[in-house]
Amino acid sequence: MTELSRAAVLDRPRGTFAVETFPVPEPGPGGFLLRTELAGTCATDTHIYLGEVPGIPYPVVMGHEFVGTIEALGSGVTHDTEGTPVRAGDRVVPMPATPCGVCYECVVKPGPVVNCDSYDVIGFTDNSVRSLAGGWSEIIDHRNPRTRFFKTALPAAMAVLAEPFSTSVHGVQRVGIKPGDTVLIQGSGTVGLLAIAAAITHGATRVIVIGGPKRRLEVARAFGADVTIDIADERDSDARIKIVKEATVGGRGVDVAIEAAGVPSAVVEGISCLRNGGRYLEVGHFADVGTVPLNPNKHLLANNITLAGSSGYGADHFLQSLRLLERRAFPYELLLTHTLPLARVRDAVLALTPEGGWKIDGEEVGKIAIDPTA
Ligand SMILES: [Zn+2]
Ligand SMILES: [Zn+2]
Hints:
Structural class: alpha/beta
Order of helices and strands: EEEHEEEHEEEHHEHEHEHEHEHEHEHEEE
Number of strands: 19
Helix content: 25-40%
Bound molecules: zinc ion
Shape: globular
């Protein structure tokens, strides 16, 4: 009898999630089947649900942050991408995005996968063309023989953070955090909180976080934030800029600011918190949620500001993130707060909207993961 896998399918933007079953194929040559243990949900999934991420096909099985055990290896697969031997039953963390390997970007300027002309992504794939290609599924069919995947001994609840952490690690490297830097992080979602760990790991010695709600700011302090500013308490942008500047030496401003909130107006506020010669990183707007007016003289030229954008990551950042998680130098276990079954993916997606109020069953959420076995 053919084995079946359940997966949560979204039919269209703002549509309906249905748990459907699909036949599990044999693993493809050079590929493998993953039995999903946990698959994270993130704001990107909420934006996909709302139809705000350019280029996403529907119907889609979302879920691009996942960890699981190898169900079956395709022909020729004996080691993970780093060279560690693997066999059925091993826990591995695959990178959801796989570059084509042959385009100009891949061959001449290899960098973050999103620079590739035609990369494919588990969790962003047309389910009517290719099924079992999303994380919110019992089995994920990794058919692409170039899939990057790494064996780990971490518990699944921590390994599931490798993907969002990669975004933070790539971001801090992109903006060039140096030892002794004072860093402002705007946003206390998973990428913002993991940016604290990434910034400190890369040398930041003072970290200020603007965000909310309260529990996330407690986690921010547990990760090493020296100053936290709750947007519910400080609603005025100018007041927040003043608090940030006063928290820096001589009131000069921060060396680096990182936008991880995905709120357009945060960009000007963050740039206004920089010292002369400061660097600004945009990592929060994976979705296109609007435009912001910027004064080229006041916000860039006059203060010698450097602007950087960071989308996704490369295999190097992904592996660095997994290894950093394995070191457990930060309280990563505080990030995952809720685990839900496939039947509740809609609750997970809506929790990260004003309508859902960042709550599940009345409780404030951090990272929510889907457990397809539940
Ligand atoms: Zn994500
Ligand atoms: Zn390519």
